[in-house]
Write a structure and sequence with these properties.
12 strands; six-stranded mixed beta sheet; binds adenosine-5'-triphosphate; four-stranded antiparallel beta sheet; binds magnesium ion; alpha/beta; Rossmann fold; globular; 32% helix; 9 helices
Length: 281
């Protein structure tokens, strides 16, 4: 298998007519771990949702390709089939669908053409073993997806899905938030166990403590809906020690959140005069 590659080029997007992404460029290849940091409300989760095809978000411009194929043209299930995976910051509860049914269906959807489905026995064995690796309660397999799960259980469950589905590129949105120290280690080990040329990972995080377990090769900072600075692990350490003000100064940004209108202080809306031209749409 060739090394997978996710390419994001000048991606612009809005939600409810509010411009959030203003031109994101990023390339994640197999074998690489990237971290995206950035203050609250700067578009990090929006980026992950747009890449995965959440219907609420409107793409205004730019391209996303996965192994050379146009992702933005694909349905959500096609994106998963292409090897993309998202662990959400706030995983949804799906009453009526058990965790195990969901995983079985999702695994089927990932099958390549002509590939045979694994037997139910094999699936159950793999699921039980993975649940054990993650130190999760065995009854998790039979509970409705995320319903009544604690914050940390939801996060572990996202990692369970990642381990079972074996994506080529995974986006993990704040997988570390709300985890206790043991869970943080277990999740870190799970991500490390997937590290290979066939797997690339984009981790959205606020804290350097995730680095105790996962060492990113590249660190990016997002402000105003685009990546304003990239570097290596030392960038993360500096942010941890000094915050974001120095970056804002360096880049010449006063307010790091989504683009706001100077006069009103409100987010720029698509219909406001000259916005499209300003954003080059
Ligand atoms: N569905 C939505 N409806 C309305 N506004 C939205 C929606 N999704 C995102 N936004 C807005 O877009 C901006 C960026 O949000 P996003 O969730 O991408 O930020 P973030 O960088 O992930 O922040 P955090 O670090 O707090 O998770 C915010 O101002 C948010 O309120
Ligand atoms: Mg977020």
């Amino acid at each position: 298998m060739a090394r997978p590659v996710l390419k994001i080029n000048d991606l612009k997007a809005s939600v409810e007519d509010k411009v959030i992404l203003t031109g994101v460029d990023l390339e994640v290849k197999g074998g690489e771990i990237h971290a995206i940091m950035g203050p609250n409300g700067t578009g990090k989760s929006t980026l992950s949702q747009v890449v995965m095809g959440h219907p609420k978000y409107e793409v205004l411009g730019g391209e996303v390709t996965m192994n050379g194929e146009e992702v933005l043209e694909m349905e959500v299930d096609e994106r998963a089939h292409a090897g993309l995976f998202l662990a959400m910051q706030y995983p949804s509860e799906i009453p009526g669908v058990t965790n195990s049914d969901f995983l079985r269906m999702s695994k089927k959807a990932r099958l390549k053409e002509g590939e045979k489905d694994q037997s139910l026995m094999k699936f159950i064995r793999e699921l039980d073993a993975t649940i054990e690796t993650l130190n999760m309660n065995p009854d998790m397999a039979h509970r409705y997806l995320n319903e009544g799960f604690s914050g940390g259980e939801k996060k572990r469950n996202e990692i369970l899905q990642m381990l079972m589905l074996k994506p080529e590129i995974a986006i993990l949105d704040e997988i570390d938030s709300g985890l206790d120290v043991d869970a943080l280690r277990i999740v870190g080990e799970a991500v490390n166990s997937m590290r290979s040329e066939d797997f690339g990972c984009l981790i959205i995080t606020h804290y350097q403590r995730v680095l105790d377990y996962i060492k990113p090769d590249f660190v990016h900072v997002m402000m105003q809906g685009r990546i304003v600075k990239s570097g290596d692990i030392s960038l993360m350490e500096k942010i941890d020690a000094e915050g974001y003000d120095w970056i804002k100064e360096e880049v010449g940004i006063e307010d790091e959140r989504v683009v706001v209108e100077a006069e009103s202080g409100r987010p720029v809306r698509l219909d406001s005069c000259g916005t499209k031209e300003k954003l080059g749409l």
